[in-house]
């Protein structure tokens, strides 16, 4: 029998930082503004992706679920305790707070101005905006974004699940940041 290729769960856990150790790992200048995402499971998944790519912060807004919630924890698996987050009842207040920090807003939405994410240039720090599973980001928030970008869709559907899109965008921005720094 040949030697095992995959690492087992115990080996993976041994290399994982603890909640107290993760505070000392530098976060990337990439944040996420989540507007009116209705599924608590999508929110939990966004936390896991954000933890994975090293997001600086998640801004939860509107009726988006936020910690502490047991149903969110079941999907986030503790990442909601590792990734800094803030909740704003009014998404416009979140935008003001983000812009006051000098952070650019990147809208992930199919608009009349959007370009493919792989053909878009941006500077850091940056915050990307994602929205409701059916209606997307509101027109009001869309109009406040500095950059509009979309993910290429080559199949019969016009969009990805919001949590999947967060992972794709987050890792693309993380890749771009690492190439520039």
SSE arrangement:
Layout: H1 9-15, H2 19-22, E1 30-35, H3 40-53, E2 57-61, H4 70-76, E3 85-88, H5 91-100, E4 104-108, E5 115-116, E6 126-130, H6 139-144, E7 147-150, H7 162-180
Parallel strand pairs: 1-2, 1-6, 2-3, 4-6, 4-7, 5-7
Helix pairs in contact: 3-4, 3-7
Write up this protein.
By secondary structure, the protein is an alpha/beta fold. The chain has one domain (26-180): Alpha/beta knot. It is built from seven helices and seven strands. The protein has helices spanning 9-15, 19-22, 40-53, 70-76, 91-100, 139-144, 162-180, and strands at residues 30-35, 57-61, 85-88, 104-108, 115-116, 126-130, 147-150. A seven-stranded parallel β-sheet has the order 3-2-1-6-4-7-5, sandwiched between helices. Helix 3 crosses helix 4 (70-76) and helix 3 (40-53) packs parallel to helix 7. The longest helix is centred in the last third of the chain and has 19 residues, at 162-180. The protein is globular. The protein starts with 8 loop residues before the first helix and ends with a helix. The mean pLDDT is 94.
């Amino acid at each position: 029998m040949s030697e095992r290729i995959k690492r087992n769960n115990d080996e993976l856990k041994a290399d994982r930082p603890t909640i107290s150790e993760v505070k000392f790992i530098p976060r990337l200048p990439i944040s996420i503004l989540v507007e009116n995402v209705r599924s608590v499971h999508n929110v939990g998944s966004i936390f896991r992706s954000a933890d994975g790519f090293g997001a600086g912060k998640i801004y939860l807004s509107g009726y988006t679920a936020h910690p502490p919630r047991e149903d969110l924890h079941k999907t986030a698996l503790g990442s909601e305790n590792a990734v800094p987050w803030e909740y704003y009842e009014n998404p416009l207040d979140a935008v003001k707070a983000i812009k006051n920090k000098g952070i650019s807003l990147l809208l992930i939405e199919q608009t009349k101005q959007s370009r493919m994410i792989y053909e878009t240039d941006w500077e850091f720090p940056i915050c990307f905006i994602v929205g409701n599973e059916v209606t997307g980001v509101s027109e009001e928030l869309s109009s406040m974004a500095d950059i509009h970008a979309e993910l290429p869709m080559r199949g019969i559907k016009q969009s990805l699940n919001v949590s999947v899109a967060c992972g794709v965008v987050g890792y693309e921005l993380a890749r771009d940041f690492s190439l520039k720094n």
